[in-house]
Amino acid sequence: MKIITPLVVLAIIMVSHSFDKSYATYDAFLQKYVCDNGVAYSKLLKDPFVKDIEREFSSLTKADYSAFSEEEKIAYLINAYNFFTILLIKDNYPLKNGIRDITSPWKKKFVPLFGEVVSLDHIEHEVLRKEFDEPRIHAALVCASKGCPALLNRAFLGRTLNEQLNQTVKLFLSDPQKNVYKDGVLYLSKIFQWYGKDFNKKHGSHVAYIQKELAIKKKPKVSYLKYDWTLNEVDGCK
Question: Containing domain of residue 156, as a range?
């Protein structure tokens, strides 16, 4: 009979508690409740997996995160931001207009991160934007509003991050309610007005980046559209 030593037991425990970089539970959650550019908030209110996903995100230690590749770090932070935004809406549902009905939603400290409790702003501005030169995150972070980029119904993964970020950019730029090129004018989401400087280092400017993505030959005029803060809610997903 095989003897299981304390070291083997410890190894089994460590493996069983390792962070799931495939985000299997969160991925299934997204596929169930995200569709048609929105989230079925009313349907997820009593889903028991919400707590499981919350525990999974909060289980990641700073040491384990430090061992991640850059792509894995960005994927984790985007997923965490988007999940805890959904959780914020869930915990304050129903809302009359949208996320701005909640007092200081982006500064509210409720997100467990590496043993601390931080805000959504902290994840976006103090970690993602400060530590990584990756402006495409602005097409992936979703603020629970119709003016935001559409939330993907799959979790971001380190191994496919580049392809997924490219996908979110294409979806965002091709949505005529948010970005459109017409008669020599680029009508852009205010996201590009707010965070356009993040594109400067890699692309010269956000306009140059978008011009290349949309294959616009002549330098366009630019105007910014009114932002729609209405909740990005759908009745349900099939």
Answer: 21-176
Residue 231's DSSP bridge partners are 145
Q: Is 160 exposed, middle or buried (0-12, 13-18, 19+ CB in 10 A)?
A: middle
pLDDT tens-digit profile, the chain (238 residues): 444 454 443 333 343 458 999 999 999 999 999 999 999 999 999 999 999 999 999 999 999 999 999 999 999 999 999 999 999 999 999 999 999 999 999 999 999 999 999 999 999 999 999 999 999 999 999 999 999 999 999 999 999 999 999 999 999 999 999 999 999 999 999 999 999 999 999 999 999 999 999 999 999 999 999 999 999 999 999 8
For the chain, how many structural domains are there in total? 1
Alpha-carbon gap, residue 48 to 4, rounded angstroms: 35
Domain membership of residue 237 (yes or no) is no
* Within-domain flag for 236: no
DSSP letter, residue 123:
I
**Helix residue ranges per DSSP H, 123-236:** 129-131, 161-173, 190-195, 200-203, 206-213
Confirm whether 120 is domain-assigned: yes
